[in-house]
Write a structure and sequence with these properties.
Blueprint: E1 2-6, H1 10-22, E2 26-30, H2 33-42, E3 47-50, E4 53-54, E5 57-58, H3 59-68, E6 75-79, H4 84-92, E7 97-100, H5 105-119, E8 126-129, E9 132-135, E10 140-143, E11 146-148, H6 152-162, H7 171-178, H8 189-201, E12 206-209, E13 213-216
Parallel strand pairs: 1-2, 1-3, 3-6, 6-7
Antiparallel strand pairs: 4-5, 8-9, 9-10, 10-11, 12-13
Pfam families: Response_reg, Trans_reg_C
Keywords: DNA-binding, Phosphoprotein
Protein name: Response regulator transcription factor
Amino acid sequence: MRILLVEDDTILGAAVRDHIAAEGHSTDWVGRLDRAAEHLDAAPYDLVLLDLMLPDGRGIAFLRELRRRGDVTPVIILTALDQISDRIEGLNAGADDYLTKPFDLAELSARLAAVARRYCGNPNPLVNLGDLQVDLAARRVLRGGGRVDLTQREWALFEALVQRPGQVISKAQLEDRLYAFGAEVESNTIEVHVSRLRKKLGAGAVETLRGMGYRLGDGR
């Protein structure tokens, strides 16, 4: 996923950014709400991780404004405010989940995946495609019963397609999902990843629609 992290604590922010980036997610990290608004206006995000106490305001007000404008980007609140009333306020403001600090990074990963599955319309983490068995929760692909090892980028690209079966995703959309702002992306990077996926998963795993983009294949 492409994730926007809004967190002013530099130690926690760096830990979260590095953790989710290591899992193949494209992550942009800002420490202020005004910068978060700029990023959301500039690029599509799959999910926002939002602290509630920022130097230039409260995350709750920011979240309410997002929902008032019709922005349905999933939001997980990350905060030290752990009272039941705080959780209720956050969820009623439009948050999809609420995680109190300190939290385990593995739990954060599980919550990220669960929210993403819900928004893709399929909460089931297990997907079958021909002789491929995909476990989105475990980030694992089996082909004919044997495990297929994918790089972080290969998994991120394949996951994007699996989460949107039948939909065509453009090259630009895939680049946005895989790479953060400022990252240098070679012109043929997506094509290279797709080629490697086909070698590992079968020629039918990914379909190319010339001039349009890519779509999940039937696995044959």
